[in-house]
Amino acid sequence: MAGTRQLFHPMFSQLQQFQTEMNRLFDRWGEDGIRQAGFPPVNVWEDGDALHIEAELPGLKLGDLEIYVTGNNQLTLKGQRKPAVPEKCVRHRQERGFGKFVRTLTLPFAVDPNNVDARFENGVLQIKLAKHESAKARKIQVKGE
Fold this sequence. Notes:
The chain is an alpha+beta fold. It is built from 1 helix and 7 strands; from the N terminus they run αβββββββ. The model is unreliable at about 30-35 (pLDDT under 50).
């Protein structure tokens, strides 16, 4: 019986490792199959000459939020959400996180860091980033013979 255990021990370790890796993979996805990317959750879309980003930041105050554009194609959201309940209390459920956060998004193209409009209303941050001239489509004239 001891020999059988030794034979299956390496296989058992590999199965445990596989299970651990699968758990990590599925922890990145929610129950509804949507990838849990990070905080804050964002939507990003493009129209015409601008990139739009919308981030959900409920409970955050404007003074606790910082936005940076770096390298012409990265946007960093940085802030701190403070707990909404007193520290000395009995918590029965804690689903909304609090504390410091940093989220950096690599944008799909270069943006003009001097042409950014950011608004924060009702816990939703809306950012409009103008495309950099180098990222705008240019019509090329085709010459014939």
